[in-house]
Design brief:
305 residues; mainly alpha; 12 helices; globular
Length: 305
């Protein structure tokens, strides 16, 4: 079965998790540091896969695993901060366009990955569709400050570095071992937030919230969906180039729009979505570009390392 299928399944589960993230950031863990911290702590649940291939790594590879996980945790931290300063429709296009470009450079020169013309064209379609799907031309920024751009750039760079290191490790070690060690790195990244007074204050205050059964159960359930999404995306990353796996993130935004439409009819008021004619046409056009990109990758994808 193609890695494209597993990436698509992972991004669908991520879309479900993102809907949960929106509710959690709005009602339960409203501060970026606390939410990033709990994501790091809960990432240790990956040890349920230890019987399938966990073993000690050489120091160098263990260090790279910790870096990959730590980079991912801090990418989330900066991403959540960017979302506090500006609408997602301003933050996500920066990350969606910059991350695949950085990965393309890193893989081309760092791993000597050779991309065909069809794959490059497919990636361009996927990235363009992702930006169109995530961008809202009607909404304005929450604030006039442009510091959110710096947070978004930091998140994009760290997401790219994390995926690049993970891909490099998959070329050397078995899938479950890399997955577990990188999640340990994410856990350590979460713990490192306790060393800074402002983030430590946010995290300690969240302990009271997490003691509430409904709050902790909601976060845990959402993280199960997120963890399964990471599992399938990581598996795709172990089989396909990180640049193309990341470019497929446009599927996540297509799934988000479809889920939003379903919630609009069955559970109105749960989330906010713009269903004006221009917005719907924009989303449909974005999904067409993403679909064409997925089709090209499925038929012609054959990047070699």
């Amino acid at each position: 079965m193609s890695w494209v299928f597993f990436a698509g399944l992972g991004y669908f589960l991520n879309a479900v998790s993102v809907l949960g993230d929106k509710l959690i950031l709005r009602k339960i863990l409203t501060r970026p540091a606390s939410y990033a911290f709990w994501q790091g702590i809960l990432s240790l649940g990956v040890f349920i896969f230890a019987p399938f291939g966990f073993s000690l790594l050489p120091f160098g590879e263990a260090f790279l695993s910790f870096l990959s996980g730590g980079f991912f945790l801090y990418a989330l931290f900066f991403f959540f901060h960017a979302l506090r300063l500006a609408d997602a429709s301003r933050v996500q296009p920066i990350i969606l366009s910059l991350t695949p470009l950085l990965l393309f450079i890193l893989e081309s020169y760092g791993l000597k990955t050779v991309f065909g013309r069809n794959e490059i064209f497919a990636a361009l379609l996927l990235v363009s569709g992702s930006v169109i799907l995530s961008f809202d031309f009607e909404r304005k920024e929450k604030t006039g400050y442009r510091i959110f751009i710096l947070y978004s750039l930091a998140a994009a760079i760290l997401f790219a570095l994390s995926a690049f290191l993970m891909r490099a490790l998959f070329l050397r070690e078995n899938f479950f071992n890399v997955l577990i060690w990188t999640r340990v790195g994410m856990f350590l990244g979460g713990l490192s937030l306790l060393f800074f007074a402002p983030t430590r204050k946010s995290i300690l205050s969240s302990l009271k919230v997490m003691k509430r059964p409904k709050a902790s159960a909601g976060v845990l359930l959402n993280k199960i969906f997120g963890a399964l999404g990471v599992l399938f995306i990581s598996f795709a990353l172990s089989r396909g180039p990180a640049t193309l796996v990341n470019a497929l993130q446009g599927l996540q935004y297509a799934f988000l729009f479809i889920l939003a439409v379903m919630l609009y009819f069955f559970l109105p008021g749960v989330i906010k979505e713009n269903f004006q004619r221009k917005a719907v046409l924009q989303k449909v056009f974005g999904m067409i570009l993403v679909s064409l990109g997925v089709y090209l990758l499925t038929i012609f994808g054959n990047a070699q390392v």
